[in-house]
Amino acid sequence: MQDFNVIIIGGGPIGIACGLEAKKKGLSYLIIEKGPIVNSLFNYPINMQFFSSSEKLEIDEIPFISKEAKPKRNEALEYYRRIVTSNNLNIQLFEKVEKVKKESEKFNVVTSKASYSASNIIVATGFYDLPNTLNIPGEDLPKVSHYYKDPHFYASQKLAVVGASNSAIDAALECYRKGADVTLIIRGPEVGQRVKYWVRPDIINRINEGSIKAYYNATVKEIRETEIDIETTEGKITLENDFVLALTGYMPNFDFLRKLGIELSNDEKLLPNYNPDSMESNVKGIYLAGVICGGMETHKWFIENSRIHAPVIVDAILQNTSE
Ligand SMILES: Cc1cc2nc3c(=O)[nH]c(=O)nc-3n(C[C@H](O)[C@H](O)[C@H](O)COP(=O)(O)OP(=O)(O)OC[C@H]3O[C@@H](n4cnc5c(N)ncnc54)[C@H](O)[C@@H]3O)c2cc1C
């Protein structure tokens, strides 16, 4: 069985940053990614533009050149892919980590394809795999999706977009501009305050002029083949509908963390237990990196502010190894 100083679970931007740092500092390492390189970014909407400017998404100070100040998804795919290939990072793709078990001093890592042994584990599994579901009848119909990809698909269709944050607002605007008949269903009283500052006026103006319909303080109650029911302050309304995009956020895989023995806070935030000085969790030898550290607070950590986790963790591993 192959043995490493550290196995990194997840080949997103932060997992890659950890691999690069481990390589630089002379640790043997393996990144295991269940999809392609930066799988989450690969699954983002095709026209997606980051809210961060490119230099804030850089890892290890490797320059990220983009056409505009804020890069697009395809530029980020290119950037992170080139980092992996030109640095010859040790990464296994399309291989899912299924189980991690401590056996004496080492961790035994079982994946969909093989087993490995490692002295340390970095969990950098992100939050994009599990959507926050609506839990209503009809949510499992094929016309309902929790992921948005391409506006062309919705042209000339009656589309309900559920949500009020960046993903929902970007999808509503793009689909409207490709000829969809868009209705926004917003649980609160307004478009989210975190919506990108240059996008928020656009959506508010489209709603005010009636190009996009919006129901505030409204929730979807049932989805059927050609209609949806929504509950509003004025009672129940039934709308004709072809497709539903339920873009109500995502959450980390908490079961996976629990199985690793990582403690979560007892409140609704489900914050994982780790030492912010080393990023080591309550399980000795298991470190947390990237957006996973925020539990249900998925807006707390992002690439910009969590790329620093890589040097912090690798330094902590080196210090623990030399003790
Ligand atoms: C639409 C959108 C726009 C965003 N814009 C920005 C922005 O402008 N700036 C910014 O800083 N952040 C932005 N973010 C957030 C940013 O994308 C995330 O913070 C970032 O992806 C976090 O990186 P990560 O490496 O922690 O997690 P991820 O990128 O999610 O990587 C986790 C990886 O782990 C893999 N994985 C999960 N489970 C397993 C397993 N069991 N075995 C093997 N592999 C596994 C996944 O496939 C995934 O590739 C945006 C997010 C979204 C959704």
Kindly summarize this structure in a few lines.
It holds the Pfam family Pyr_redox_3. The chain has 323 residues and is an alpha/beta fold. It contains eight helices and 19 strands.
Key attributes of the depicted protein:
323 residues; alpha/beta; FAD/NAD(P)-binding domain; 2 domains; 7-stranded mixed sheet; 5-stranded parallel sheet; elongated; binds flavin-adenine dinucleotide; FAD/NAD-bd_sf
What does this structure look like?
With about 325 residues, the chain is an alpha/beta fold. It has helices spanning about 15-25, 40, 75-85, 165-175, 200-210, 255-260, 305, 310-320, and strands spanning about 1-10, 30, 90, 95-105, 105-110, 115-125, 130, 145, 160, 180-185, 215, 220-225, 225-230, 235-240, 245, 250, 275, 280, 285-290. The protein has two domains: about 1-130 and about 250-320, 3-Layer(bba) Sandwich (FAD/NAD(P)-binding domain); about 135-245, FAD/NAD(P)-binding domain (3-Layer(bba) Sandwich), CATH 3.50.50. It contains eight helices and 19 strands. A hairpin with a 3-residue loop joins strand 5 and strand 6 (about 115-125). The strands form five sheets. Strands 1, 2, 3, 4, 5, 6 and 19 form a seven-stranded mixed beta sheet that branches. Bound molecules: flavin-adenine dinucleotide (FAD). Flavin-adenine dinucleotide binds next to helix 1, helix 2 and helix 7.
